[in-house]
Amino acid sequence: MPAALLPTLVPAAPALAAPVLAAPALAAPEIPCPKPKVAPPPNRPPTPVPPPDDPVGSAIGGDALATHGLVIPAGAKAPPAVTASTWMVADLDTGEVLGGCGPHVFRTPASVQKTLLAATVIDKLNPDQRITVAQSDLDIEPGSSAVGLLVGGKYPISTLWLGLMLNSGNDAANALARLAGGGGADGVRKTVDEMNALAKRIGAYQTHAVTPSGLDGKGQFTSAYDLALIARIAFANADFRRYVLTKSAQMPAQPQLKKGGFQFQNENKLIFNYPGAMGGKTGFTTVARHSYVGAAQRNGRRLVVTLLGAEARPLRGWQQGAALLDWGFSLPKDESVGKLVSPQDVAPATAAPQLRPAPPAAAEPAAPGEPPKVLSVVAAGSVALLLAGAPLILLLIQRRRRRPGR
Protein backbone atom coordinates (compact mmCIF):
# COMPACT_ATOMS: atom_id res chain seq x y z
CA MET A 1 0.00 0.00 0.00
CA PRO A 2 1.45 3.44 -0.90
CA ALA A 3 2.71 5.39 2.08
CA ALA A 4 0.73 8.43 0.92
CA LEU A 5 -2.49 6.52 1.62
CA LEU A 6 -1.65 5.54 5.19
CA PRO A 7 -2.92 8.71 6.90
CA THR A 8 -6.41 8.06 5.51
CA LEU A 9 -6.49 4.35 6.32
CA VAL A 10 -4.95 4.01 9.78
CA PRO A 11 -5.11 6.17 12.93
CA ALA A 12 -2.41 8.78 13.27
CA ALA A 13 0.45 7.92 15.62
CA PRO A 14 0.34 9.68 18.99
CA ALA A 15 2.40 12.86 19.16
CA LEU A 16 4.64 11.39 21.86
CA ALA A 17 5.68 8.58 19.51
CA ALA A 18 7.13 10.97 16.90
CA PRO A 19 10.70 11.03 18.28
CA VAL A 20 11.09 7.28 17.81
CA LEU A 21 9.82 7.17 14.23
CA ALA A 22 12.32 6.94 11.39
CA ALA A 23 12.68 10.08 9.30
CA PRO A 24 10.85 9.81 5.94
CA ALA A 25 13.01 9.24 2.90
CA LEU A 26 13.54 12.37 0.83
CA ALA A 27 11.94 12.28 -2.60
CA ALA A 28 14.34 12.34 -5.51
CA PRO A 29 14.61 15.82 -7.03
CA GLU A 30 12.59 16.30 -10.19
CA ILE A 31 14.51 16.55 -13.45
CA PRO A 32 13.61 19.74 -15.35
CA CYS A 33 12.07 19.19 -18.78
CA PRO A 34 14.16 20.53 -21.69
CA LYS A 35 12.75 23.90 -22.78
CA PRO A 36 13.84 26.30 -25.51
CA LYS A 37 14.95 29.72 -24.35
CA VAL A 38 12.03 31.78 -25.61
CA ALA A 39 9.97 34.36 -23.76
CA PRO A 40 6.27 33.55 -23.30
CA PRO A 41 3.85 35.83 -25.17
CA PRO A 42 3.01 38.94 -23.12
CA ASN A 43 -0.76 38.51 -23.53
CA ARG A 44 -0.91 34.91 -22.27
CA PRO A 45 -3.73 34.56 -19.72
CA PRO A 46 -3.12 32.85 -16.39
CA THR A 47 -3.38 29.06 -16.28
CA PRO A 48 -6.58 27.82 -14.60
CA VAL A 49 -6.03 26.48 -11.10
CA PRO A 50 -6.00 22.68 -11.41
CA PRO A 51 -7.28 20.15 -8.88
CA PRO A 52 -4.69 19.10 -6.28
CA ASP A 53 -2.35 16.27 -7.21
CA ASP A 54 -3.68 12.84 -6.31
CA PRO A 55 -0.82 10.59 -5.13
CA VAL A 56 -2.70 7.48 -6.28
CA GLY A 57 -3.90 8.79 -9.65
CA SER A 58 -0.51 10.35 -10.41
CA ALA A 59 1.14 6.92 -10.21
CA ILE A 60 -1.32 5.11 -12.48
CA GLY A 61 0.83 3.39 -15.07
CA GLY A 62 3.90 3.31 -12.85
CA ASP A 63 5.54 5.11 -9.94
CA ALA A 64 8.03 6.86 -12.23
CA LEU A 65 5.17 8.76 -13.91
CA ALA A 66 4.24 10.55 -10.67
CA THR A 67 6.37 13.61 -11.40
CA HIS A 68 6.02 17.14 -12.71
CA GLY A 69 9.46 16.81 -14.27
CA LEU A 70 11.15 14.68 -16.93
CA VAL A 71 10.95 10.88 -16.89
CA ILE A 72 12.91 8.89 -19.51
CA PRO A 73 14.63 5.49 -19.52
CA ALA A 74 18.01 5.33 -17.79
CA GLY A 75 20.77 6.09 -20.27
CA ALA A 76 18.40 7.35 -22.97
CA LYS A 77 19.40 10.43 -24.93
CA ALA A 78 17.71 13.65 -23.91
CA PRO A 79 14.44 14.44 -25.67
CA PRO A 80 14.11 17.61 -27.76
CA ALA A 81 13.46 20.93 -26.05
CA VAL A 82 9.81 21.88 -26.57
CA THR A 83 7.59 24.62 -25.16
CA ALA A 84 4.85 22.17 -24.18
CA SER A 85 4.18 22.27 -20.45
CA THR A 86 3.51 18.52 -20.37
CA TRP A 87 3.98 15.73 -22.91
CA MET A 88 4.24 11.98 -23.30
CA VAL A 89 5.28 9.41 -25.93
CA ALA A 90 3.87 5.88 -25.80
CA ASP A 91 3.52 2.76 -27.94
CA LEU A 92 -0.02 2.46 -29.30
CA ASP A 93 0.17 -1.34 -29.48
CA THR A 94 2.09 -2.46 -26.40
CA GLY A 95 1.08 0.45 -24.17
CA GLU A 96 4.66 1.01 -23.05
CA VAL A 97 5.36 4.61 -22.04
CA LEU A 98 8.68 5.71 -23.55
CA GLY A 99 8.98 8.98 -21.67
CA GLY A 100 7.27 12.15 -20.71
CA CYS A 101 7.27 15.49 -18.94
CA GLY A 102 4.73 15.68 -16.10
CA PRO A 103 2.55 12.99 -17.71
CA HIS A 104 -0.14 13.20 -15.01
CA VAL A 105 -0.12 16.99 -14.58
CA PHE A 106 -3.55 18.60 -15.06
CA ARG A 107 -3.88 20.90 -18.09
CA THR A 108 -6.76 22.34 -20.10
CA PRO A 109 -7.24 20.40 -23.36
CA ALA A 110 -8.56 22.73 -26.10
CA SER A 111 -9.64 20.87 -29.25
CA VAL A 112 -7.73 17.66 -28.61
CA GLN A 113 -10.81 16.93 -26.48
CA LYS A 114 -12.53 16.15 -29.76
CA THR A 115 -10.65 12.83 -29.72
CA LEU A 116 -12.63 11.94 -26.57
CA LEU A 117 -15.87 12.87 -28.32
CA ALA A 118 -14.91 10.61 -31.22
CA ALA A 119 -13.86 7.74 -28.95
CA THR A 120 -17.21 8.03 -27.14
CA VAL A 121 -19.76 8.22 -29.96
CA ILE A 122 -18.17 7.36 -33.32
CA ASP A 123 -19.57 3.83 -33.14
CA LYS A 124 -23.04 5.07 -32.16
CA LEU A 125 -23.64 7.17 -35.28
CA ASN A 126 -24.23 5.87 -38.79
CA PRO A 127 -21.79 7.78 -41.05
CA ASP A 128 -24.34 7.68 -43.92
CA GLN A 129 -27.15 9.18 -41.84
CA ARG A 130 -27.99 12.82 -42.55
CA ILE A 131 -28.47 15.41 -39.85
CA THR A 132 -30.30 18.73 -39.98
CA VAL A 133 -28.31 21.44 -38.22
CA ALA A 134 -30.10 23.27 -35.40
CA GLN A 135 -29.53 26.81 -34.19
CA SER A 136 -28.07 25.49 -30.93
CA ASP A 137 -25.31 23.72 -32.86
CA LEU A 138 -23.89 27.11 -33.75
CA ASP A 139 -23.84 28.25 -30.12
CA ILE A 140 -20.05 28.48 -29.91
CA GLU A 141 -17.58 31.06 -28.67
CA PRO A 142 -17.34 33.97 -31.16
CA GLY A 143 -14.19 33.72 -33.21
CA SER A 144 -13.59 30.07 -32.37
CA SER A 145 -13.07 27.49 -35.11
CA ALA A 146 -16.09 26.39 -37.13
CA VAL A 147 -16.39 24.38 -40.30
CA GLY A 148 -19.27 26.52 -41.62
CA LEU A 149 -22.44 24.54 -40.98
CA LEU A 150 -25.71 26.29 -41.81
CA VAL A 151 -28.85 26.24 -39.69
CA GLY A 152 -31.33 24.06 -41.56
CA GLY A 153 -28.57 22.51 -43.65
CA LYS A 154 -28.56 18.74 -44.14
CA TYR A 155 -25.21 16.94 -43.91
CA PRO A 156 -24.03 13.32 -43.77
CA ILE A 157 -22.60 12.33 -40.39
CA SER A 158 -19.34 11.43 -42.15
CA THR A 159 -19.01 15.04 -43.34
CA LEU A 160 -19.47 16.29 -39.78
CA TRP A 161 -16.71 13.96 -38.57
CA LEU A 162 -14.43 15.36 -41.26
CA GLY A 163 -15.38 18.91 -40.28
CA LEU A 164 -14.62 18.03 -36.67
CA MET A 165 -11.23 16.37 -37.20
CA LEU A 166 -9.86 18.34 -40.18
CA ASN A 167 -11.12 21.84 -39.52
CA SER A 168 -11.70 21.50 -35.76
CA GLY A 169 -15.29 22.62 -36.22
CA ASN A 170 -16.88 23.42 -32.86
CA ASP A 171 -20.21 23.62 -34.68
CA ALA A 172 -19.70 20.04 -35.87
CA ALA A 173 -18.84 18.97 -32.31
CA ASN A 174 -22.13 20.38 -31.00
CA ALA A 175 -24.15 18.77 -33.79
CA LEU A 176 -22.56 15.34 -33.31
CA ALA A 177 -22.90 15.51 -29.53
CA ARG A 178 -26.54 16.60 -29.76
CA LEU A 179 -27.42 13.76 -32.13
CA ALA A 180 -25.50 11.14 -30.13
CA GLY A 181 -27.32 12.30 -26.99
CA GLY A 182 -30.74 11.72 -28.53
CA GLY A 183 -31.14 14.87 -30.61
CA GLY A 184 -33.00 16.89 -27.99
CA ALA A 185 -32.16 20.03 -26.10
CA ASP A 186 -30.26 17.96 -23.52
CA GLY A 187 -28.39 15.91 -26.12
CA VAL A 188 -25.07 17.73 -25.72
CA ARG A 189 -25.17 17.41 -21.93
CA LYS A 190 -25.91 13.69 -22.15
CA THR A 191 -22.99 13.15 -24.51
CA VAL A 192 -20.61 15.10 -22.29
CA ASP A 193 -21.72 12.86 -19.42
CA GLU A 194 -20.93 9.83 -21.60
CA MET A 195 -17.52 11.28 -22.43
CA ASN A 196 -16.72 11.55 -18.74
CA ALA A 197 -18.01 8.04 -18.08
CA LEU A 198 -15.80 6.63 -20.86
CA ALA A 199 -12.78 8.47 -19.46
CA LYS A 200 -13.28 6.73 -16.12
CA ARG A 201 -13.83 3.33 -17.74
CA ILE A 202 -10.47 3.48 -19.53
CA GLY A 203 -8.53 4.86 -16.56
CA ALA A 204 -8.32 8.52 -17.66
CA TYR A 205 -9.06 9.68 -14.12
CA GLN A 206 -7.66 13.19 -14.60
CA THR A 207 -9.97 13.99 -17.50
CA HIS A 208 -13.15 15.97 -16.95
CA ALA A 209 -15.04 17.31 -19.97
CA VAL A 210 -17.37 20.28 -19.78
CA THR A 211 -17.83 20.90 -23.53
CA PRO A 212 -17.78 18.33 -26.35
CA SER A 213 -15.48 20.50 -28.47
CA GLY A 214 -12.78 21.42 -25.97
CA LEU A 215 -13.83 25.07 -25.80
CA ASP A 216 -12.81 26.19 -22.33
CA GLY A 217 -15.15 25.40 -19.47
CA LYS A 218 -14.78 25.75 -15.72
CA GLY A 219 -13.25 22.60 -14.25
CA GLN A 220 -12.29 21.12 -17.62
CA PHE A 221 -8.95 19.33 -17.45
CA THR A 222 -6.99 16.39 -18.83
CA SER A 223 -3.39 15.14 -18.83
CA ALA A 224 -0.85 13.92 -21.36
CA TYR A 225 -1.23 10.39 -19.97
CA ASP A 226 -5.03 10.49 -20.26
CA LEU A 227 -4.85 11.79 -23.83
CA ALA A 228 -2.70 8.79 -24.77
CA LEU A 229 -5.32 6.43 -23.29
CA ILE A 230 -8.04 8.22 -25.26
CA ALA A 231 -5.97 8.18 -28.47
CA ARG A 232 -5.43 4.45 -28.10
CA ILE A 233 -9.22 3.93 -28.12
CA ALA A 234 -9.78 6.36 -31.00
CA PHE A 235 -7.02 4.98 -33.26
CA ALA A 236 -8.44 1.48 -32.82
CA ASN A 237 -11.43 2.66 -34.90
CA ALA A 238 -11.03 2.36 -38.68
CA ASP A 239 -13.34 5.31 -39.42
CA PHE A 240 -11.37 7.56 -37.06
CA ARG A 241 -8.09 6.57 -38.73
CA ARG A 242 -9.57 7.33 -42.14
CA TYR A 243 -10.95 10.72 -41.09
CA VAL A 244 -7.74 11.99 -39.48
CA LEU A 245 -5.65 10.96 -42.51
CA THR A 246 -7.94 12.81 -44.96
CA LYS A 247 -6.10 15.81 -46.39
CA SER A 248 -9.11 17.74 -47.68
CA ALA A 249 -12.88 17.31 -47.89
CA GLN A 250 -15.88 18.90 -49.55
CA MET A 251 -18.73 20.54 -47.69
CA PRO A 252 -21.85 19.80 -49.76
CA ALA A 253 -23.97 22.58 -51.25
CA GLN A 254 -27.28 23.39 -49.60
CA PRO A 255 -29.62 24.19 -52.51
CA GLN A 256 -32.64 24.64 -50.22
CA LEU A 257 -30.69 27.45 -48.53
CA LYS A 258 -29.22 28.71 -51.82
CA LYS A 259 -25.68 28.13 -50.60
CA GLY A 260 -22.89 26.47 -52.54
CA GLY A 261 -20.40 23.93 -51.28
CA PHE A 262 -16.76 24.51 -50.46
CA GLN A 263 -13.56 22.65 -49.69
CA PHE A 264 -11.78 22.57 -46.33
CA GLN A 265 -8.32 21.31 -45.39
CA ASN A 266 -6.78 19.23 -42.63
CA GLU A 267 -5.06 21.54 -40.13
CA ASN A 268 -2.80 18.76 -38.84
CA LYS A 269 0.31 19.34 -40.94
CA LEU A 270 1.92 16.15 -39.64
CA ILE A 271 0.13 14.13 -42.32
CA PHE A 272 1.66 16.32 -45.05
CA ASN A 273 5.21 16.39 -43.69
CA TYR A 274 5.98 13.33 -41.56
CA PRO A 275 6.70 9.91 -43.13
CA GLY A 276 4.42 7.29 -41.62
CA ALA A 277 2.02 9.84 -40.10
CA MET A 278 -1.27 8.31 -38.97
CA GLY A 279 -3.01 11.59 -38.19
CA GLY A 280 -4.15 13.19 -34.98
CA LYS A 281 -5.67 16.41 -33.69
CA THR A 282 -4.51 19.96 -33.10
CA GLY A 283 -5.93 22.30 -30.48
CA PHE A 284 -5.73 25.90 -29.30
CA THR A 285 -7.51 28.34 -27.03
CA THR A 286 -6.01 31.43 -25.46
CA VAL A 287 -6.32 29.78 -22.05
CA ALA A 288 -5.17 26.24 -22.93
CA ARG A 289 -2.54 27.39 -25.45
CA HIS A 290 -1.56 24.84 -28.10
CA SER A 291 -2.24 21.14 -27.61
CA TYR A 292 -1.58 18.20 -29.88
CA VAL A 293 -2.23 14.48 -30.28
CA GLY A 294 -0.50 12.67 -33.14
CA ALA A 295 0.56 9.18 -34.14
CA ALA A 296 2.94 7.64 -36.65
CA GLN A 297 4.25 4.23 -37.66
CA ARG A 298 7.77 3.20 -38.56
CA ASN A 299 9.31 -0.26 -39.02
CA GLY A 300 6.22 -1.99 -37.67
CA ARG A 301 6.06 0.25 -34.61
CA ARG A 302 3.20 2.68 -33.86
CA LEU A 303 3.81 5.55 -31.45
CA VAL A 304 1.52 8.27 -30.12
CA VAL A 305 2.59 11.66 -28.80
CA THR A 306 0.46 13.95 -26.65
CA LEU A 307 1.32 17.47 -25.53
CA LEU A 308 -0.41 20.31 -23.72
CA GLY A 309 0.23 23.96 -22.91
CA ALA A 310 2.62 24.68 -25.79
CA GLU A 311 3.47 27.92 -27.57
CA ALA A 312 3.70 28.13 -31.37
CA ARG A 313 7.27 29.49 -31.44
CA PRO A 314 9.89 28.36 -32.24
CA LEU A 315 7.93 25.24 -33.26
CA ARG A 316 4.21 24.76 -33.81
CA GLY A 317 2.39 22.06 -31.87
CA TRP A 318 2.54 19.43 -34.60
CA GLN A 319 6.25 20.15 -35.13
CA GLN A 320 6.89 19.61 -31.43
CA GLY A 321 4.96 16.37 -31.75
CA ALA A 322 7.07 15.33 -34.74
CA ALA A 323 10.31 16.02 -32.85
CA LEU A 324 9.12 13.93 -29.90
CA LEU A 325 8.03 11.11 -32.21
CA ASP A 326 11.50 11.09 -33.76
CA TRP A 327 12.96 10.83 -30.27
CA GLY A 328 10.60 7.97 -29.42
CA PHE A 329 11.43 6.01 -32.57
CA SER A 330 15.15 6.40 -31.78
CA LEU A 331 14.75 4.41 -28.53
CA PRO A 332 15.03 0.61 -28.45
CA LYS A 333 11.69 -1.18 -28.46
CA ASP A 334 12.14 -2.56 -24.96
CA GLU A 335 12.68 0.86 -23.33
CA SER A 336 9.91 1.92 -20.98
CA VAL A 337 9.20 4.04 -17.92
CA GLY A 338 5.58 2.95 -17.39
CA LYS A 339 2.48 1.51 -18.99
CA LEU A 340 -0.81 2.66 -20.44
CA VAL A 341 -3.50 0.88 -18.45
CA SER A 342 -6.09 -1.01 -20.48
CA PRO A 343 -9.86 -0.93 -19.96
CA GLN A 344 -9.52 -4.52 -18.71
CA ASP A 345 -7.08 -3.35 -16.03
CA VAL A 346 -9.49 -0.66 -14.92
CA ALA A 347 -12.68 -2.75 -15.02
CA PRO A 348 -12.36 -4.21 -11.49
CA ALA A 349 -12.04 -0.70 -10.07
CA THR A 350 -14.85 0.97 -12.02
CA ALA A 351 -17.25 -1.97 -11.71
CA ALA A 352 -16.80 -2.42 -7.97
CA PRO A 353 -20.07 -2.07 -6.02
CA GLN A 354 -20.45 1.13 -4.09
CA LEU A 355 -20.80 0.08 -0.46
CA ARG A 356 -22.89 2.34 1.73
CA PRO A 357 -22.72 2.45 5.51
CA ALA A 358 -25.84 1.23 7.28
CA PRO A 359 -28.21 4.04 8.33
CA PRO A 360 -27.72 5.24 11.90
CA ALA A 361 -29.71 3.31 14.47
CA ALA A 362 -30.87 4.36 17.88
CA ALA A 363 -28.46 3.28 20.57
CA GLU A 364 -29.68 0.35 22.64
CA PRO A 365 -28.41 -0.74 26.02
CA ALA A 366 -25.61 -3.22 25.59
CA ALA A 367 -25.83 -6.65 27.06
CA PRO A 368 -23.19 -7.46 29.68
CA GLY A 369 -19.84 -8.03 27.98
CA GLU A 370 -21.13 -6.72 24.60
CA PRO A 371 -19.87 -3.45 22.99
CA PRO A 372 -22.41 -0.65 22.49
CA LYS A 373 -24.26 -1.06 19.18
CA VAL A 374 -23.52 2.51 18.09
CA LEU A 375 -19.83 1.52 17.93
CA SER A 376 -20.74 -1.42 15.70
CA VAL A 377 -22.40 0.97 13.25
CA VAL A 378 -19.31 3.19 13.20
CA ALA A 379 -17.07 0.18 12.67
CA ALA A 380 -19.25 -1.08 9.81
CA GLY A 381 -19.10 2.33 8.15
CA SER A 382 -15.30 2.37 8.44
CA VAL A 383 -15.02 -1.05 6.83
CA ALA A 384 -17.33 0.02 4.01
CA LEU A 385 -15.20 3.13 3.38
CA LEU A 386 -12.03 1.04 3.18
CA LEU A 387 -13.63 -1.49 0.82
CA ALA A 388 -14.99 1.25 -1.46
CA GLY A 389 -11.48 2.65 -1.95
CA ALA A 390 -9.83 -0.73 -2.33
CA PRO A 391 -10.29 -1.21 -6.12
CA LEU A 392 -8.26 1.91 -7.02
CA ILE A 393 -5.58 0.91 -4.51
CA LEU A 394 -5.44 -2.58 -6.02
CA LEU A 395 -5.14 -1.07 -9.51
CA LEU A 396 -2.17 1.01 -8.39
CA ILE A 397 -0.53 -2.00 -6.72
CA GLN A 398 -1.11 -4.03 -9.90
CA ARG A 399 0.61 -1.34 -11.94
CA ARG A 400 3.57 -1.36 -9.58
CA ARG A 401 3.87 -5.12 -9.84
CA ARG A 402 3.83 -5.04 -13.62
CA ARG A 403 6.23 -2.12 -13.97
CA PRO A 404 9.02 -2.38 -11.43
CA GLY A 405 10.96 0.86 -11.05
CA ARG A 406 13.93 1.34 -13.32
UniProtKB/TrEMBL annotation:
It comes from the Bacteria. Keywords: Carboxypeptidase, Cell shape, Cell wall biogenesis/degradation, Hydrolase, Membrane, Peptidoglycan synthesis, Protease, Signal, Transmembrane, Transmembrane helix. The chain crosses the membrane at residues 374-397. The keyword Nucleotide-binding does not apply. Residues 1-17 form the signal peptide. Gene3D superfamilies: DD-peptidase/beta-lactamase superfamily (3.40.710.10). Residues 77-311 form the Peptidase S11 D-alanyl-D-alanine carboxypeptidase A N-terminal domain. GO terms for molecular function: carboxypeptidase activity. Residues 32-54, 351-370 are annotated as: Disordered. InterPro entries: Beta-lactam/transpept-like, Peptidase_S11, Peptidase_S11_N. The keyword Transmembrane applies. Pfam families: Peptidase_S11. Belongs to the peptidase S11 family. This is D-alanyl-D-alanine carboxypeptidase. It comes from Paractinoplanes lichenicola.
